[in-house]
Amino acid sequence: MAVNISSLPKEAIIALEQYPEFEIAHFNDSGANGYVLLGRHSVLQKDVAIKIYFHDENDVNQEPTIISKINHDHVLKVHDARKVGKECSYFLMPAASDGDLSNFLNNYNLSLPLAHKLLCQLLSGTSALHGEPNLLVHRDLKPENLLVHDDNLVIADFGSVRRIDESTLKAPASKHSILYRPPEAFGSAAYFNFSSDIYQAGFIGFLLFGGKISNELLSHMTAKEVDKLSGISGGYEQSIYIDSCLEKKIKSGKLIDWDDLPFFVPNSLKRVLRKAVSPTEKRYKMVSEFLADLSKLRGQLPDWIVKDDGFRLRNWKGLDYHIRSEDLCVMKRKKGNKTFRVDNSYQGTNINQIHAEMKERLGLP
Length: 365
Known about the structure:
The chain is of the alpha+beta class. It folds into three domains: 85 residues, 2-Layer Sandwich (Phosphorylase Kinase, domain 1); 158 residues, Transferase(Phosphotransferase) domain 1 (Transferase(Phosphotransferase), domain 1, Orthogonal Bundle), CATH 1.10.510; 60 residues. Helix content is 31%, strand content 22%. The protein is built from ten helices and 16 strands. It has a five-stranded antiparallel beta sheet. A five-stranded antiparallel beta sheet has the order 12-13-14-15-16, with no helix packed on it. It has a two-stranded antiparallel ribbon with strand order 6-9. Strand 2 and strand 3 form a beta hairpin. Helix 4 packs antiparallel against helix 9. The radius of gyration is 23 Å and the shape is globular.
């Protein structure tokens, strides 16, 4: 069935005309500032995507050819990159089976081991950007700019990438995605450095392990701030005030609610994530430091996952455990068995009490 492309902008039509070997299957609004066209490349014999994005005329000065030279499993492979016009560019790239990480997190609950794996992959790809001879900072790491394919993560969307100044070890601050901006990216002396990418990766780690953050900016403001906003006239003036409220919250370290993480996330892991999003003087300076601390926890993470009807702990010392949400009943079975049996020995009256009992009895971290 032919795909109706009449609703696409002229820039997307031009891009398609440049790729007669691309057989479009479907397309979607990327949710930010462009379109993603998905289909089959008849010459490469691969499923590919064309990401078309719009930008200010001078906003993209990082040549895509630099990115294409980075050969790393967790940095997007760019088959081709071109400009359609002064304010529009596109990449030809491999297709991702699960789309971006934002879509992936909306569709699936992740186990602790899978979340750990994806965060390590993000950091591994970030390390490739930071390393010699690249010395690149991404400056806009967020779920919408990361792709997931067969439970593997790759860094994408390089419109904000800049090279670090080797004399100052800094780059200009990006003004994209205020929720993910680190504290040092605000004010007249705003900047990004390698640890700024680490902050954003730590924020993404919070989401991977089950934390939530609303993209609705007003939800992060106090009632008093929202009341004051209602008295400000003019859209621009309102946006400036909203940004100032978020800046204050980010600088005070109060944007992330650590209590929002599931009860089963170990404190040792929370400490690592907290350090990643700490103020610059307390934060990891290099990706290798962050990765090293995460690697120490790899064999200590119990395989918890949120299910529709409760919480599942898989294969802990040969047994599976399930806590039903409706009545907090604890059930268990031998790994490989189909049927759970009730364990009435747990006396906790809330999920935290039951988890505390399980930690004591089972040796959970």
